């Protein structure tokens, strides 16, 4: 590859990255339109082929669902978030006060140490306490800043909503224009691959939504049984942490249980959180291969194997990459791009 071609390739990649970054609402709208297409096709059969009415009915139902979710978000979640972040600095102060008291209770241990070492340790502890309080305040300010940015996000939301309707209305035409980029001989194969990948993508997000709903329900029920305050927001935080790569429900519940046991001396809450972590983990591991297999169009065994190998090779990111490789392989094999025959 010449230097000129390399520069052009870098410029192209930079352009794609910039386009994707500034087109996030539009790309999300396109993905939403693809996910809503099965519902649109159902209404098309009901309205005898009139796509405009089918898209309108689907769009109204989608907006109704968004409205119900937004109402719940603003009336329940936001209230608990505000209450939670107002007490977060006090929790941080309490945590470091307990640590400080524990430190001073170890006088017999460091009494024999040189005064300079003791003074350095005390100064370090005070600095750590101030850092924790400042971090909690910054987190509070960040969340409040996110809330104040809602008017700006509203513009992106309006663009997203309008784009969902327009993409859904023109999806068949966009799909036909995409196929026209290929020759007649390659079009059938590309159409088959694209169809399977689209179905698998929609199935993947549907599976993640189902798993997140199950996790949220189990976490909310567990927190309510344990009589924990802010159960709604904490259950949502557990789901968010569970979705993020590398992290998981254990990275949230296990430290919380340790804090409750060793610092707050709340054995009931600590063991309850550990039991809840075990229940969520077991339930997810049981239903995840089946849900992914049925949603992605691959067998439960293939889903389980791809999840395990992906996790062993790439960690939590492999839980996504593993099934994706199986899906792409199945799509290419079904379209005839991959042909494996063993002969002796």
From TrEMBL:
Membrane topology classification: Multi-pass membrane protein
Transmembrane segments: 6-31, 52-73, 143-167, 204-226, 232-257, 269-287, 307-332
InterPro entries for the chain: AI-2E-like, YtvI-like
Biological process, per Gene Ontology: transmembrane transport
Record's subcellular location: Membrane
Top-level taxonomic group: Bacteria
One Pfam family here: AI-2E_transport
GO cellular component: membrane
Record key words, sorted: Membrane, Transmembrane, Transmembrane helix
Family as reported in the entry's similarity comment: Belongs to the autoinducer-2 exporter (AI-2E) (TC 2.A.86) family.
NCBIfam families linked to this entry: spore_ytvI
Protein name per UniProt: Sporulation protein
Species in which this protein is naturally found: Fictibacillus phosphorivorans
Taxonomy of the source species: Bacteria, Bacillati, Bacillota, Bacilli, Bacillales
